[in-house]
Design brief:
Blueprint lengths: L1 H4 L3 H9 L6 H10 L6 H4 L4 H4 L18 H4 L2
């Protein structure tokens, strides 16, 4: 299974034991390989905006993504 997931046996053991440091992508890949990808929603539910398949848009007042506003710089 580790070979099919393209990870080390230690990483697979960490995934199987539920260690929090393992990648959610690895978990999704394992569930997909086992035909259980639909059960991922029980572990990490998608935000309502994504579940509704609506595009989330930023308002113009929020500014560009990744840009720190002047008011946020004062700490």
């Amino acid at each position: 299974m580790a070979e099919r997931l393209m990870c080390s046996p230690n990483t697979l053991r960490a995934l199987e034991s539920g260690k929090p440091g393992t990648s959610i992508g690895l978990l999704a890949h394992a569930l997909w390989l086992l035909g259980q990808i639909d059960s991922l929603d029980g572990v990490a539910p998608a935000p309502a905006e994504l579940a509704a398949k609506r595009r989330v848009r930023r308002s113009a007042a929020q500014g560009a993504a990744g840009v720190i506003a002047e008011g946020e710089r004062d700490f």
